[in-house]
Amino acid sequence: MRLAAPLKGVVGIFGGTFDPVHHGHLRTAYELKQTFDIERIHFIPASQPPHRSQPEASVELRLKMLEAAVGGEPGCIVDRREIDRDGMSYSIDTARSLREDYPRHALCLLLGMDAFLGLPAWHQWEDLFGLVNVIVARRPGAELPGAGELGRLLEARRIEPDADTVWHASGQIIIHEVTQLEISATELRNSIRHGVAPKYLVPDAVWDVIQSSGCYAE
After folding, report:
1. In angstroms, rounded to a whole number, what is the distance separating the alpha carbons of residues 19 and 26?
2. Is the torsion defined by CA of 195, 196, 197, 198 positive or negative?
3. pLDDT of 14-48, one tens digit each?
4. Residue 23, SS3?
């Protein structure tokens, strides 16, 4: 894909609870960064996620785990703006904040398929497309919605990227298959509580933080 003349680059937004961050998150981010020549990805842990239960680990521990996972990796930024903002962690507020930081970049919200399917329940979700593009990480074989709000959204906004496709600052949707590592953070926490080490599921540096803090202990 090519940049439109006024645009300076592509910036990714990867949000979540990261409770804990694991190789499923990291592999998806890496593949999308490489495929779409994303200059940098902001990993943004939610403080108060509006659509799920509150995280078990504290915000500071989740930040510490993220920093352990991606610290020193070129183009990966651990971003605490949702933690520093009062109230619920709405993606629309984060997108507005990042648009102020990057007025001349293509902003890309990176979503898993489950998050994309739940998009119509998000706060002011339709306004997101005036601020960001959306890249959906699709697991092989996962079906796309063909009807309803999301079906109409895909028909209007989906693009099939190739060398001649031009990035817009916002408003586009790309569906891209990635290596799907079926890792559940809930199952990870439960396993750790039962004394099972998450070897090869989280980076060793993240496991060190979990062990030293005891954040998922019985």
Report:
1. 13
2. negative
3. 999 999 999 999 999 999 999 999 999 999 999 88
4. helix
Residue 207 sits at φ, ψ, to 5 deg, of -60, -35
Longest dimension (CA), the chain: 55
Q: State the Cα–Cα distance between residues 83 and 92, nearest whole angstrom.
A: 15
Threshold 0.85, pTM exceeds: yes
Q: Please, which residues have CB within 8 angstroms of residue 215's CB and are 6 or more apart in sequence?
A: 56, 57, 58, 61
Taking only the tens place, the pLDDT of each residue in 102-133 is 999 999 999 999 999 999 999 999 999 999 99
Pair 44, 87: CB distance under 8 Å: no
Radius of gyration of the chain from Cα atoms? Answer: 17
3-state SS class at 191? helix
Domain with residues 2-184, CATH architecture: 3-Layer(aba) Sandwich (3.40)
Q: What angle do CA 34, 36, 41 make, to 5 degrees?
A: 70
Separation in Å, CA 216 to CA 63, 68, 117, 194: 15, 17, 29, 10
Sequence-ordered list of residues with C-beta below 8 angstroms from that of 69, at least 6 positions apart, any chain:
21, 26, 202, 203, 205, 206
How many residues does the structure list for the chain?
A: 218
